[in-house]
Amino acid sequence: PKLLTYATKGSQIQPHPKTGNPNPCPNHKKPQTPLLKSLAHNSSTPQNVLILYNEMLCHPSCINHYTFTHALKACSLSHAHQKGLQIHAHIINSGHLFDTFIQNSLLHFYLVENDIFTARQIFDSIVIPDVVSWTTIISGFSRCGFEKEAINMFSLMDVKPNFSTLVSVISACSSLRAIHFGKAIHAYSFRNLNDNNIIWDNAVLDFYVKCGSLVSAKYLFVEMPNRDVVSWTTMVGGYAQRGLREEAVGIFEEMVESGEAVPNEATVVNVLAACSSIGALSLGRYLHTYIIRTRPDLLMNDHVGNALINMYFKCGNVALAIKVFDMLTGKDIISWSTLISGLAMNGHGKQVLQLFSPMIVNGVSPDDVTFIGLLSACSHAGLVDEGMMFFKAMRNVYGILPQMQHYACMVDMCGRAGLLEDAEAFIRETPMKAEGQVWGALLNACKVHGNDKIFERIRQGLVNSEGVSTGTFALLSNIFAGTDRWADADEVRDEMICLGLKKTAGCSWIEV
């Protein structure tokens, strides 16, 4: 092929102004590796790297071992698997295979492509693996879901690990909840690595949070010399996910007051989830106001918008939830499902049914969560015929296989309408073994309608089912007690003790 001449403008490959043709090697002499490197560092133009590499193959004098590393990096960025295999073959033919830099690049490429077997072969072929080799294989194993192998590789290291190595292995410990090994790695960093590294500190913080050791996480958080938005978000999310919602909100308020970091999407979503769980409407509105005043860009984020809608519904403010929904520019299936479920839980069942058609018209197809909201709305509004229609459409029109929650909704819907035989028939038709929530829905319906004929079957079903809540057993015991069947009531309580279940005391609260 004709020799082409390249000139560059920014990161884009441009034709030569005189010839109009690109040329990777003017005069067949000047190597273009610097140009290749410049293009490779721009992650938005990996294809340009491969175009230039293809032209350079015509002129071996333009190629050195850096050429292959830059080309492999481009293959990793663009997931050009076949091209990577071709480059690997060329490396073998050109005699560059045993260059450590190239072997590390090959190792990274195969791990990005999730080819664990070939990556391990490449690693084993490295005569003297350096810290980059070890870090690449450990991080790759951890990222591909082979956390145990990643920890095992770390144990075999014969070179001093750096912060990147430790971040990779402690991430594997986080996934496995390997608290003891993770603590050992943390202790190793104290003894051997003296420099402060915020990425490492955040990884350790995430490790303690995921392992449920919030005391250690809080101590580390307080002692961190530098903290960024990731540090704060990790703590907020850790408290929220462990049910410590008040602490999560408190950490967020401290973050805002200190001005140490600006909350991002993940921070705001975690705090809104905490507000939803504790019904803290005033805190949720404060957060909404904070977003409007300081981070209006977050209002355009679907995740934040959906979290706001969910928070307002959970706190009972339907009007504000609908207002936020109307303001969303990109309404996805989560937005519509949240709206449908929120209206259903707040008693607006008939309005829910009116939303189904607009959702379809807007090109959003319902999923299994959407149908849970629709069936729940029909149940609470007493719309049995409509509920039956949605249940059939879910299977026959949208191809969604009903799960246990859908059957529980149908049992609850029939039970509320007094159709106890139909409700029990749904339990018999369930393709999987009925769980506690299904039997609980039928039990509650029997109590409401005063039908004690099927109590014994419900009782037997509860004993042999999984996921039975303590409240369901307590309800059954109270029903027996209400009909002077004290022996049966005591027997249910004894069964609760045998199963290790204990009724949590009820509580109420108001927001001050």
Automatic annotation (TrEMBL):
It comes from the Eukaryota. InterPro entries: E_motif, PPR_At4g14850-like_plant, PPR_rpt, TPR-like_helical_dom_sf. PPR repeats lie at residues 130-160, 228-262, 332-366. Residues 1-34 are annotated as: Disordered. Keywords: Repeat. The lineage of its organism: Eukaryota, Viridiplantae, Streptophyta, Embryophyta, Tracheophyta. One of its GO terms (molecular function) is RNA binding. Signal peptide: none annotated. The keyword Glycoprotein does not apply. This is PPR domain-containing protein/PPR_2 domain-containing protein. Pfam families: E_motif, PPR, PPR_2. The keyword Repeat applies. GO terms for biological process: RNA modification. PANTHER family: OS07G0578800 PROTEIN-RELATED, OS12G0156900 PROTEIN.
